[in-house]
Amino acid sequence: MSQVFKYEDLDDYNLNKPDVLMVLKPWIDVGRVGTRVLRHLKKELEANNLTSMNNPGVFYDYTIYRPRTYFENSKRIFRKPETRMSLIKRPGHTNDLILMELLEPHSNSEELIDAILDMAKRYDIASYTMIGGMYDMVPHTRPLVVSSIVSNKNMLDDLKEFNVRESDYEGPTSITLLVQEKLREKGIDTRTFVVHLPQYLEINEDFSGQARLMEIICKLYNLPTDLVDKQKGIDQYADSELYFNDYDEIDNLIEMLEQNYDKTYGSNETVSAELSPDIEQFLKDIGESL
After folding, report:
1. Is CATH 3.40.50.10900 the right assignment for the domain spanning 5-243?
2. pLDDT band at residue 1, thresholds of 50, 70 and 90?
3. Which of 67, 181, 281, 282 is the most buried (most CB within 10 A)?
């Protein structure tokens, strides 16, 4: 058994085939949407700590992920960067819920992957779901789209109302996605949901992205829909408009992105609208600043 994680004494909890909901930080957590969803669930559903790490420095470079110091009840606290898990006990439901904030490792990745797989075996998990956000050339004036990779494609039919589309992405990825591959081999259901956020806004904490992911999570796990706060995101995007209403360049960009969005997502056919050289350069400049 792996010694990477220290487990809390939960003998009295009688865990019931928990679902795992995780966010991979910082690689695919643009707008902190995944982190915000997990922390909102932890607060509202009264999560308990499940694990910490014995020696996180084995996996993480502390000059890249900096330790933090802060005050709590007038006492100074020192906190190391690490992967953490918490548990939400759900009486009356088929499955409990484990929330995992997975910090992407700098070294010894396979050992961390094995430790997560050990956790999955230890608690006999029912499913493993990753959520996150990415910047894309999409307008803030249209419903946010979510890319998905699922082992059970029938699930996508139940999520169409939330603009969930099957992803055809190929390219660089994270070594930690091996966890999902190994779990699928064992017959465990795996899912990935990544919400596409407007690149030109560059919002540190995107409430609309959080709300979109929360809609999906509430549907998947039969959670109360009042956990979803759409209005906060609507207000945030409206406030953002005040900063660029007087810039014709951005207005033209948004109009072009709306046309591209409508052609791409308004039907089953994928069509890309051509962007002018000025707008292409504008987007490139934004991307280099991220």
Report:
1. yes
2. low
3. 282
Domain boundaries, the chain: 5-243
Prediction pTM value: 0.88
Contacts of 262 (CB under 8 A, 6+ apart): 142
Residue 135 carries which side chain, given as an amino acid letter? Y
The answer to which of 121-135, 157-171, 183-197, 256-270 has the lowest mean pLDDT is: 256-270
Place of tokens 């999902």: 180
pLDDT exceeds cutoff 70 at 257: yes
Are residues 84 and 54 in contact, defined by beta-carbon separation less than 8 angstroms?
no
Tens digits of residue pLDDT in 134-167: 999 999 999 999 999 999 988 999 999 999 999 9
Rounded (10°) angle between helices 109-122 and 178-185: 40
Q: Label each residue of the chain as H, E or C.
A: CCCCEEECCCCCCCCCCCEEEEEEECCCEHHHHHHHHHHHHHHHCCCEEEEEECCHHHCCCCCCCCCEEEEECCEEEEECCCCEEEEECCCCCCCCEEEEEEECCCCCHHHHHHHHHHHHHHCCCCEEEEEEEEEECCCCCCCCCEEEEECCCCHHHHCHHHCEEECCCCCCCCHHHHHHHHHHHCCCEEEEEEEEEECCCCCCCCHHHHHHHHHHHHHHHCCCHHHCCHHHHHHHHHHHHCCCCCCHHHHHHHHHHHHHHHHHHCCCCCCCCCCCHHHHHHHHHHHHHC
Q: How far apart are the first and last CA of the chain?
A: 40
Please name which of 134, 152, 154 lies closest in space to residue 144, comparing C-alpha atoms.
134
Q: What is the distance between the alpha carbons of residues 12 and 27, in angstroms, rounded to a whole number? A: 36
